[in-house]
Amino acid sequence: MPMTRRTWLSIVAAGVAGALTPLRSLAAQDGEQRELERRIGRLIDEYGQQGFHRTGTAVDRRSGDWLYDEVRRIGLPADRESFLLGRVDPGKSVLIVQDRRIEGLPLFDGAFTAADGIRGRLGPINSDAEIGLAEAPPNTAGAGAIGEARRQQRHKAIVFVTRGGRPGLCPSNADRFLDPFGPPVLQVSSDESAFLTQQAQARAEVQLIARATRSSATAFNVTAAITGRDRGLAPLVVMTPRSGWYACASERGGGIACWLELIRTLRAATPTRDVLFVASSGHELGHLGIDAYVARRPGIVPKTVGWIHLGANIGAATRPGDPPPAAGDDPALRHATPVLGPANTIQASDDEFESILSRAMSAGGLAISRRNPRGTIPGGEAETVHRGGGRYVSVIGSNALFHNPDDRGPQAVDVSAIARFSKAFAVVADALVRTDRLAPEARYAPKAP
Question: Class for domain 40-86+216-442, per CATH?
């Protein structure tokens, strides 16, 4: 039967449509990518503009309310789960050397001084001086020479010059917030390093004042849950911290953005098992928030299928000339030779979980710089899961602005990298939702409200 003109035209039209389908698909993908990056950029910009995200403060409460509303905007009910703390409110904190006053911040898990402070000679840490001088990266105040001097009470007070990736006062977290130890420690900016080293060598007489008061306060975690198709399966938990020092746009912003994107993705997918979400306050105070979350759910840690920890500095930006990355919450980085440029450390409870995470990151073009050795206590909130016998995967990035007062603004993050992370975490979540090695009797059964 000869081909008619109408038949020929229909075949041509079908061929053209078929050829255009991939182009339309690519256009749709580009549009989705632009929308994803727009959402991430907006979230981190709003979070960074909220102010100093210190636990239990007015900013912390407003920020939590904002995040609560963001979850509800996606279409998932959210909760505010409160916990109590003895909030530290810094007072006059200064080092007086000759005619110079150097403003500082007390270490929150050390002692504080009386109003007139402590007078004495300034000298290197572990010298015979009354006031020791030390210099180290943020989050190392409990380790090395400083930690040992604090435990041994070798000085009446310590001046801690915080050596971050960029100049500034970059505080350490108070890992022992509930169990303070040692003498008063005054943290000061790295800009004072040369001057204070000179004064310590000369054993200059100084006055150190590190005043603070404690007051009863309330903070809260933002939580949510997606109901799975089979309530009998052990749940998956996705966690990220939401509090910290200063605006911490790049330290916490990437994790918060990925947390919300996972809520969006998994809600649309209707997973086979329940997925629980927690954005915790109290990060800089020994992880108070995640501990409160676990305490409200006795037995949850080992009776889940796994935990995804979205740690510090996910998608933090780098720029030419940045020094080696700051340690962040990565225990491996604290004692390793640092490298230039972005560095992602992955932490996992076991080989299977590490393989799932590393494959997803590699497929997304996300480099893995370090892998936490098996059995090593992980950094960040993953430590709570590790100590509780649960399974987990965790990512911690590097960041020259870690704990720096300048960690704010769109220049602090790489929105494209955070978008790739969000997709990689979605792959990981999908794989863990499908995994279940727990015996039925070991599964966690949440209490009825």
Answer: alpha beta
